Amino acid sequence: MVLQRDMARPENDLAEQRLLVRQIRRELVQEYRARLETCYEPPIRMMASLVQALERECAERHLDETATRLEIVNRTIGDVNLRLVSECDGAEGGPGDYRRLADELGVALPGENLQGYVATGAVYHWLRDQMLEAERDLMDRGCDPRVYDIASVGNPVLRGWLADDMRQWGLTVGAEHIALGLGATDCMDKVLRGLGALARLRSEPAGAVLLPTPGFNMVESQAAANGYQLHSVETRPEDSFKLTAEQLAAALDENPEVSVLYLTVTSNPSTFAYQPDELLDLLGVLRLQRQRGRTVYLMADLAYVGTGVPAEDEARMRALSSAADLADQVSYVSSLSKTHTLTGERFAWVTFGDADLAGRMVGSWINSTVSMPGEWQLRFMAYHRLFRENPQLLDKVRSLYGMRRARLRAQLRRLDEQYQLFEHIYLDDDTTIYNWSKLREGEDCFSVLEKTGIAGIPGSTFGYSDQYVRFSVGILPVVLN
User: Which residues form the Aminotransferase class I/classII large domain (predicted)?
Assistant: First the structure.
């Protein structure tokens, strides 16, 4: 008999439905585990496809959506879906009503139902008005966003605004140091492409990229595609999974072909952030290499700088930007995707510490993006004004992240008491949208999903051991009951 949806199911019927979902979960986990023996598939794709298969199977069997939602929790994806935010901490409509964020950030459509809150659409319309004003302003300055952008790095007004933002962290930069990109991933690819091209102009190979692990793995494929070799350094739990100056010095001595160091200042997946003294020590290693006649470029990924305590973020950024003598070999990749929950907008930029280096990198932008989309730039300008005029919005986003991280740790501790899953549930540096934990011997992402219904990403995705797992708080709220 086919089970039909009924939102008024009695409690015992919902319990039966949840048992059916668990049975499906167990069967599909066993099926996908068997696939590991016969074919190679990247771990992140394997887990993502498994979650999709579970949700599809439950839908095809017409199982209760509430039962499915309670028994299959996708914590693989880092992106934040503001439309799914359901938390309301305090009075409805008050400052702790996080459901309003989609409306307050102009993501929600006018009249859209957001988990019981109906969006006004005021910011949605305001952003479009601001795009009109931004276009008029650009035209008055002789900059037409509707024609070909010869340099391809974006209009000088927006780049000047972003330079102002970076100067607040101690960087001595102007619009000429900034190049816009369609997301942080696009920016990193352009930087690697550009540095490789500069090496070829000197009749030198691109060299190699040094990647601390665990780390964001997209850079690996980008580096390989742009002709770099790859070298990794496995960080240690006792160092909070951060690259130490001693490790960096040893890796550079052992691998003289390394030309680029990729560093996530606030780490995905480990959730730990570099402290000012740690960054100064790393810069000291690069300085010593320079004194020896070797230039190692630093590509600093700032994607999660802004998710933590503002004063701590400022301290680490001021340390990173303090080495004026290394400015011509440092690039900073920034994005509004995670810090501002605007993953679909693809707003990002690169700040080059040296204007001459920025100028020599333009060819990478011309040969990839060709010209930045005019409408996208206007949208970017409108959002920049929104956050300049309403800084409390970022406080609210950070508060939501902090609440979700704390709730996820509490949930994992409770599940560990029930199933004995974890050897260590790590705390974080009050940053990012993840939890990074170590599993007990014999456990892996498949067994965690089978027992709890929570899908995470195995450590091998980030160049580390599968005894570790990353869970995201981004896509879904954390339900403790």
Answer: 197-473
Task: Look at residues 306, 300, 303 and name the one whose alpha carbon lies nearest to residue 322.
Answer: 300
User: Is the per-residue pLDDT at 5 higher than 60?
Assistant: no
What pLDDT digit, counting tens, does each position of 309-356 carry?
A: 999 999 999 999 999 999 999 999 999 999 999 999 999 999 999 999
Prediction pTM value: 0.92
Q: Which one, of 293, 356, 294, lies nearest residue 327 by Cα?
A: 356
Q: 343-358 pLDDT, tens per residue?
A: 999 999 999 999 999 9
User: Each residue of 428-475: pLDDT tens digit?
Assistant: 888 999 999 999 999 999 999 999 999 999 999 999 999 999 999 988
pLDDT in tens, 348-398: 999 999 999 999 999 999 999 889 999 999 999 999 999 999 999 999 999
CATH annotation of 151-382: 3.40.640.10
When mean pLDDT is compared across 28-37, 108-117, 126-135, 459-468, the lowest value belongs to 28-37
CATH 3.40.640.10 intervals, the chain = 151-382
SS (H, E, C) the chain: CCCCCCCCCCHHHHHHHHHHHHHHHHHHHHHHHHHHHHCCCCHHHHHHHHHHHHHHHHHHCCCCHHHHHHHCEECCCCCCCHHHCCCECCCCCCCCEHHHHHHHCCCCCCCCEECCEECCCHHHHHHHHHHHHHHHHHHHCCCCCCCCCCCCCCCHHHHHHHHHHHHCCCCCCCHHHEEEEECHHHHHHHHHHHHHHHHHHCCCCCCEEEEEECCCCHHHHHHHHCCCEEEEEECCHHHCCCCCHHHHHHHHHHCCCEEEEEEECECCCCCCECCHHHHHHHHHHHHHHHHCCCCCEEEEECCCCCCCCHHHHHHHHHHHCCCHHHHHHEEEEEECCCCCCCCCCCEEEEEECCHHHHHHCHHHHHCCCCCCCHHHHHHHHHHHHHHHHCCHHHHHHHHHHHHHHHHHHHHHHHHHHHHCCEEEECCCCCCCCEEEEEECCCCCHHHHHHHHCEECEEHHHHCCCCCEEEEECCCCCCCCC
Do you find a cis peptide bond into 214, omega within 30 degrees of 0? yes
Mean pLDDT for 149-168 is 95
